[in-house]
C-alpha cells in the first residue's frame, strides 16, 4: 500500500540533508540571525554542540503570529516566487532549516519584534509543539537546541568526538564572522570565550580577531574589478602557504561558498610561487550580479554554479595575479581588546 508520509516523518527524513551535524545547525541559525539584520550575534556551544547550542541575536525577531509557522517546512519570509531565486540577497530561502532542526532535537525559541511589548517563547520536542507562552525579553531571537538526534539513534552514533564537532563549529563560525565584519560575533565554548569580533565593518580587524595575527602582517589587500566581478579582501603572500585548502576562504555576495572553480583560479595565480601540493591563504569576497550565479544547488548551500565558468576563472586569476605582483601589504593595525 502506498501512503503519504506525515509532516513529522517528512521533516525527520529531510533533516538528514540539512542537519549533517551540530555545525550545520550553527550555520543555519547564524545565517538566520544575519538575515534578521542583527548587529550582534552570540553562539554558545557545549560538548561540541551535541548537547547544547544557543544562538542569540538582536535582529528583527519573529512576530508572535508567525512563531509556529517558522517551524513549518518550506515556510520562509525571504522569497515569494521562483523568480526571486535569481536575485537572492538573503542567506536563507529554502525555509527548511528550522523545521529540520526541530525534527531531530529539543528546541526552544524566544523572540520579540520591536513593535511587540512582550516576546514569546515556544518549545518543540522532535518537531512536536510542547508549549508557547508570552515572556519578557529584548528585541531579537534566541534559539536553544538541546540533545541533537535524541530521537534518531542511528544519527546519534555517527557524530564525531566532542573535539571533532567543536573544530567544525569553530571553522564555520570563523567563516561567518569573516563574511560579516559589520556584525559583532561572540563565540563561547563550554563557558570559555573563543573569540569576539568588534563588528565595526573592518575586515582586517576581523581577521586579526579570528585568525592567526601573524598572518595579517603578510597579507596583501585586494580591491579590484574585472568583467562585472569585484573582488575585495586579503590574500596571503606565497610564504604563508598551508598544506590544505582550509584557509582559502571565499564569499560570493557575502555568502560562504566552496567552489572548485574559484579554488582552481586562485591556485593558478599562485602556481609558480608555491611548493607543490601547498595552498595559499586568503579571505576574499566576490561581488557578482546574483543572476550570474546559482546558489540553489545543495541544501547546505555552500556549492554554487556559474553561468560562465571560464569567464569567472579568468577574471579571478587575473585579479589575484595582479595583487600578487603589486605586493602592497596593509599597514600594521592596532585593535583594542
Ligand atoms: P529560511 O531561512 O530559509 O527562510 P528557516 O527555516 O531557516 O528558513 O527559517 C524560517 C523563517 O523563520 C525565516 O524565513 C524567518 O522568517 C524566521 N526566522 C528564523 N530565524 C530567525 C531569526 N533569528 N530572526 C528572525 N526571524 C527568523
Ligand atoms: Mg534559514
From TrEMBL:
GO biological process: mismatch repair
One term under GO cellular component: mismatch repair complex
Keywords, sorted A to Z: DNA damage, DNA repair
GO MF terms held by the record: ATP binding; ATP hydrolysis activity; ATP-dependent DNA damage sensor activity; mismatched DNA binding
Domain DNA mismatch repair protein S5 as annotated: residue spans: 207-325
Keyword Transferase: no
Biological function: This protein is involved in the repair of mismatches in DNA. It is required for dam-dependent methyl-directed DNA mismatch repair. May act as a 'molecular matchmaker', a protein that promotes the formation of a stable complex between two or more DNA-binding proteins in an ATP-dependent manner without itself being part of a final effector complex.
Family statement: Belongs to the DNA mismatch repair MutL/HexB family.
Protein name: DNA mismatch repair protein MutL
Primary gene name: mutL
Amino acid at each position: 500500500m502506498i501512503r503519504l508520509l506525515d509532516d513529522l516523518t517528512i521533516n525527520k527524513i529531510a533533516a538528514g540533508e540539512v542537519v549533517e551535524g551540530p555545525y550545520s545547525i550553527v550555520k543555519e541559525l547564524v545565517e538566520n540571525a544575519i538575515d534578521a539584520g542583527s548587529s550582534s550575534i552570540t553562539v554558545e556551544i557545549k560538548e561540541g554542540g551535541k548537547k547544547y547550542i544557543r544562538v542569540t541575536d538582536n535582529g528583527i525577531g519573529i512576530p508572535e503570529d508567525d512563531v509556529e509557522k517558522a517551524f513549518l517546512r518550506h515556510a520562509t519570509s525571504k522569497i515569494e516566487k521562483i523568480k526571486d531565486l535569481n536575485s537572492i540577497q538573503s542567506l536563507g530561502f529554502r525555509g527548511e532549516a528550522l523545521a529540520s532542526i526541530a525534527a531531530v532535537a529539543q528546541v526552544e525559541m524566544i523572540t520579540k519584534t520591536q513593535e511587540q511589548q512582550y516576546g514569546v517563547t515556544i518549545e518543540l520536542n522532535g518537531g512536536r509543539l510542547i508549549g508557547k507562552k508570552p515572556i519578557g525579553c529584548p528585541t531579537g531571537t534566541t534559539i536553544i537546541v538541546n540533545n541533537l538526534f535524541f530521537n534518531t539513534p542511528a544519527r546519534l552514533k555517527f557524530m564525531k568526538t566532542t573535539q571533532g564537532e567543536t573544530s567544525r563549529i569553530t571553522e564555520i563560525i570563523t567563516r561567518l564572522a569573516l563574511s560579516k565584519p559589520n556584525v559583532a560575533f561572540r563565540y563561547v565554548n563550554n563557558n570559555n570565550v573563543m573569540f569576539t569580533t568588534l563588528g565595526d565593518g573592518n575586515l582586517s580587524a576581523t581577521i586579526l580577531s579570528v585568525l592567526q595575527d601573524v598572518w595579517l602582517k603578510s597579507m596583501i589587500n585586494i580591491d579590484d574589478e574585472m568583467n562585472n566581478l569585484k573582488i575585495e579582501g586579503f590574500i596571503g603572500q606565497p610564504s604563508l602557504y598551508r598544506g590544505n585548502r582550509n584557509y582559502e576562504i571565499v564569499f560570493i555576495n557575502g555568502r560562504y561558498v566552496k567552489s572548485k572553480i574559484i579554488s582552481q583560479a586562485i591556485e593558478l595565480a599562485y602556481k609558480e610561487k608555491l611548493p607543490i601540493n601547498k595552498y595559499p591563504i586568503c579571505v576574499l569576497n566576490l561581488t557578482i550580479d546574483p543572476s550570474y550565479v546559482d546558489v540553489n544547488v545543495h541544501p547546505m548551500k555552500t556549492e554554487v554554479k556559474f553561468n560562465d565558468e571560464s569567464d569567472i576563472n579568468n577574471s579571478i586569476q587575473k585579479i589575484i595575479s595582479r595583487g600578487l605582483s603589486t605586493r602592497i601589504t596593509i599597514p600594521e593595525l592596532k585593535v583594542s581588546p
